[in-house]
Amino acid sequence: MELTRCDGGTLYLLDEDCLRFKIMRNNTLGTSEGGDGRDPGLPPVPLDRKHVCALSLIEDRVIRVEDVRKCREYDFSGPIEYDAIFRYHTQSMLVVPMRNREGAKIGVLQMINALDEEGKVCAFSEDMVLLAESVASQAAITIQNVRYIQMIKDLFRSFVRVLSSAIDKRTPYNGNHTRHMASCGEKFIDFLNRQARDEGKEEPFSREHREEILMSIWLHDIGKLVTPLEVMNKEYRLRPEQYQNFCHRMETIRLTAKIEHLHGSLTDEEYEKMVSGTREAFALVEEAKKAERITDSMLAGIQDLRTRTYTGEDGLIHSWLSDDEYEMLSIRGGTLSPQERKIMAEHVVVTDKLLSQIRFSPELSHVRQWAADHHEFLNGSGYPHGKRGQEIPMEVRIITILDIFDALVASDRPYKAGKTVEEALEILKEMAENQGKLDPELTRQFIASRCWQ
Question: Which residue in 5, 328, 339, 361 has its CB near the most CB atoms, within 10 A?
Fold first, then answer.
């Protein structure tokens, strides 16, 4: 507009079979819409020859009109209708089609009411036509580059989400974890921004900052790509083969006792005691392998089982419980042994290693660290590095809260029943206020946000 000395201008971009308003400026009317990420609220122009902007693109030619009301070559009913609505008078017009490097149609630049030295409306000169064509060409290249950048960003985001979904789908017990975290994360960040605005403060999260945190959430469990499924999918304390071995052992003991009873080496009372003992052992192991938590009485029963012995076919004395079965059944909470927990915890180290191989753009430069540190606690009891206090950024503290909350309320975890929301929130408060693991203020704001709803 400045170069062509005109009063108004519009940028249309081609969208399938129509031209959409992207930027509208008019000095006389004092209007300025678009160019800020929000499109002007006007209906699109159909790609029809009766509209001069569409015709210019269809025929790939510049259209210059001295006075739209005297021109009979084109249909200017649209601009005239706009004039009536906005109390404006469109007179001269210059419409320039835009094509990219490959010659594909992109959109149209439309200039309205050229002005002479005295500020009066006049026709667009030939020099202005050449100038507008040059600007349109440069604009088309810029728009194409912006679209390429957006396409690359969209492709990367799509790849990350597909990868994240693949990780979650490796196990039926983690199917929606990352997606739930990302959804809660978006709402929580928006809540914090809204809260800051309401208090007259600057928003703590820009669009780029928000994107970086969400990308960290989508990638936080990428290390689980290499976590063994037998560990990640471990539903009970005993692995299937361990449980089968135990059941087979109890059946062997029972059948051996029956044979001995038939041969007369066991009395009726001794035989019944042996049979009831195997039944009780089976019932105890069945309960212990599924229990969310091993009680003292259950542990005492397991320890007693370990002391009971039988003579095997090899003539050697064996315990009713093998060492590895005893170790697993003695796990107080959860289903994983210390060694299996160590294997599970390795996923954050692997996350760091995998993400170190991605060349993140500057606006995503913290993704690797934030994703890999989501199991660190403020009191230093987290892993893998035992970071504490100020070593843990605010973004990581947010991701940690989201991760713990979703793990608590999840109803599809193999090692526990899902908590109610209120139970989960009480646990978060305990971890923040009494244990010093979580950020108290962020935990309070998380609870206030109700971002899981």
Answer: 328
Please give the distance of CA 382 from its chain centroid, rounded to a whole number.
Answer: 23
For 18, the token pair is 């129509």
| SS3 of the chain: helix, strand, coil, percent, to 5 | 55, 15, 35
Q: Would you call 155 helix, strand, or coil by DSSP?
A: helix
Cα 232 to Cα 183, 373, 414, distances in angstroms = 23, 20, 9
11 bridge partner residues: 23, 109
- The band of 174, judged by pLDDT with boundaries at 50, 70 and 90, is low
* Mean local confidence (pLDDT), 85-114: 92
Q: Where are the alpha helices (DSSP H) in 330-420?
A: 338-355, 367-372, 394-409
Backbone Cα Rg of the chain: 36
Of 178, 185, 189, the C-alpha closest to 347 is: 178
Sequence-distant (6+) residues with CB within 8 A of 82 are 88, 90
Instruction: Find where tokens 């991760």 sit.
Output: 403
pLDDT of residue 368: 96
Sign of CA dihedral 417, 421, 427, 431: positive
Exposure class string for 9-43: b at 16+ Cβ within 10 A, else e: bbbbbbeeebbbbbbbbbeeeeeebbeeeebbeee
One-letter amino acid for residue 364 of the chain = L
Query: For position 303, what pLDDT does the model report?
Result: 94
Helix (H) or strand (E) holding 8: strand 6-15
Reported pTM: 0.71
Residue 138 CB neighbours (<10 A): 11
Q: What is the DSSP letter of 99?
A: E
Residue 172 confidence class, pLDDT cut points 50, 70, 90? low
> Cα–Cα distance between 55 and 376 in angstroms, integer?
61
